[in-house]
Design goal:
Elements lengths: L1 H13 L8 E6 L8 E2 L5 E2 L1 H13 L2 E6 L2 H9 L5 E7 L2 H4 L2 E3 L4 E10 L14 E5 L3 H13 L2 E5 L2 H9 L5 E5 H9 L4 E3 L6 E11 L4 H16 L2 H10 L4 H4 L2 H4 L2 H7 L1 H33 L4 H16 L2 H16 L5 H27 L2 H9 L4 H31 L11 H12 L2 H31 L1
Parallel strand pairs: 1-4, 1-5, 8-9, 8-10
Antiparallel strand pairs: 2-3, 5-12, 6-12, 7-10, 7-11, 7-12
Length: 473
């Protein structure tokens, strides 16, 4: 018996230990239906999402999905901050110089589109008119090539829905887009028409991309998994699911989208999550930026020229940088220099602290300087050291002067959180963008988002005014 147990123990020890499944960070543009979007339950779905899910299951790896704007998603992979991108991304020679690419998993082409009922019937009629393009896409590159031939003007957008509505409202004469994407939007009620459904331009493959020279194992796993789902018919089921099903399967019933109340009711959990993220960002940014700004303000009136100069330089630099540029620099650019990934929330919060703190520092310094100089002289004549005089005499009086500026900066901080949607933070504005990408109800969704912001700003103003009265009396 003992021999049997011994043999069994040896057998168990001899069994190879299974390695943990690798986890990859995959970026995507979640506003690109039918490839990538959110359904009525706020789950990320689409051709890309279903393919990725099946491939990961069959090839035994897990992934962390990072939805964000297309440009940010592509740059994260190019800079090595993410492992791969799947976003309905067309394969071309320019991208092959930056990325390694999978076997094409979908064949597509570029359509040119006008608003429904437009009098424009040919590309020649676009001469001198404005065409809308989405930044960074293959369709935009194709459109730019056509500009040389047909002489139209171009303006760029960062998201698909805004670009579509610009054409539907007549602000732009036309746009260029991947055919399955625009076909989905039109089926979903977008008032546009495809002018070349049987003669698509720039036809080619859509692929999964990784940084050039890196993640060869992930790329090989994707190719093997794709070959597997293609062979057993799973791929065809995925394509049929998104291109031939009723849109209500993903967007919800008509009653959920034909009124503001219906949209609010069916998406209340998403709106609440987005609002909560906005509030958390705002509160943390207000507290930390105020502390940082007060420090900069105190440094700005220091007796030391070096300390004053440091404060002035910091305030000048971070007030001069646009908030979105700063956010991209911290989230996408900086990790490539320091060699450490920065989470989106951390990058967004740091962006707000640096930017809002610089503005706070400027008016804090001004508030301290507004205190009558005789106050400092009187305090020093009583024998108080400079630091004590500042802390007990000048700063308390200066803070009362600054209260209106603090209130205004609080409101600005709340509104500025919307810009952080560009780096994938799922706050209120990004929540609205994802809902619009699914149901194409831009006016109703943005009216709801605007109303929520207005309510929160009003409450914040009331609270700030109450604090102001308490401090004064």
């Amino acid at each position: 018996m003992l021999a049997l147990f011994a043999a069994l123990g040896l057998a168990l020890l001899a069994r190879p230990v299974q390695a943990a499944e690798p986890n990859y960070v995959i970026t995507t543009d979640a506003t690109y239906a039918p490839f990538d979007f959110q359904d009525k339950n706020n789950e990320y779905i689409g051709i890309d999402m279903d393919i990725l899910k099946e491939v990961a299951k069959r090839e035994h790896f897990t992934y962390t999905l990072k939805p964000m704007s297309f440009n940010a998603a592509a740059q994260l992979v190019a800079n090595g901050q993410a492992d791969g991108i799947i976003a309905g991304m067309m394969i071309n020679d320019e991208r092959k110089q930056v990325y390694d690419v999978s076997t094409p998993y979908y064949q597509s082409g570029v359509a040119w589109i006008t608003k429904k009922g437009s009098s424009i019937k040919s590309l020649k009629e676009l001469k001198g008119k404005t065409v809308a393009l989405k930044t960074g896409t293959a369709a935009a590159e194709y459109g730019k090539q056509q500009q040389k031939k047909y002489g139209f003007k171009i303006k760029y957008f960062n998201d698909t829905d805004t670009m579509y509505n610009d054409v539907a409202n007549g602000n732009s004469a036309a746009t260029f887009e991947d055919y399955p994407v625009i076909a989905y939007a039109i089926k979903n009620g977008m008032k546009l028409q495809v002018m070349n459904p049987h003669n698509l331009g720039n036809a080619g493959g859509v692929g999964f991309f990784v940084q050039k020279g890196h993640n060869a194992e992930l790329l090989a796993a994707f190719n093997r998994g794709f070959a597997s789902i293609k062979k057993d018919g799973t791929y065809d089921k995925i394509i049929n699911k998104y291109l031939n099903s009723k849109q209500s399967k993903f967007t919800g019933d008509a009653a959920d989208n034909n009124s503001m109340w219906g949209i609010l009711r069916s998406n209340k959990s998403a709106f609440m999550k987005g609002l909560w993220e906005t509030i958390v960002l705002t509160v943390l940014a207000i507290i930390l930026a105020s502390l940082w700004g007060i420090l900069l303000g105190v440094m700005g009136i220091s007796q030391s020229k070096w300390i004053r100069g440091t404060s002035t330089t910091i305030i000048y630099a971070f007030r001069g940088l646009p908030l979105m540029v700063l956010a991209f620099f911290i989230y996408i650019g900086l990790p490539g220099v320091i060699g450490t990934k920065i989470p989106a929330f951390t990058a967004g919060l740091l962006t707000l602290i640096l930017n809002e703190g610089a503005y706070t520092g400027a008016f804090v310094r001004g508030g301290f300087e507004a205190v009558d100089s005789g106050q400092m002289e009187a305090a020093r004549s009583l024998g108080l050291p400079y630091g004590t005089a500042m802390r007990k005499v000048v700063i308390p009086q200066g803070l009362k002067i600054m209260i209106p500026s603090f209130i205004n900066q609080f409101i600005i901080t709340l509104k500025d959180t919307s810009i952080l949607s560009a780096i994938g933070i799922l706050e209120l504005t990004q929540t609205g963008t994802l809902i619009v990408a699914r149901n194409s109800q831009g006016f109703r969704v943005w009216a709801i988002v605007a109303a929520i912001y207005l309510i929160v700003i009003t409450l914040l103003t009331w609270f700030s005014n109450w604090v102001q009265r308490r401090i004064k009396y």
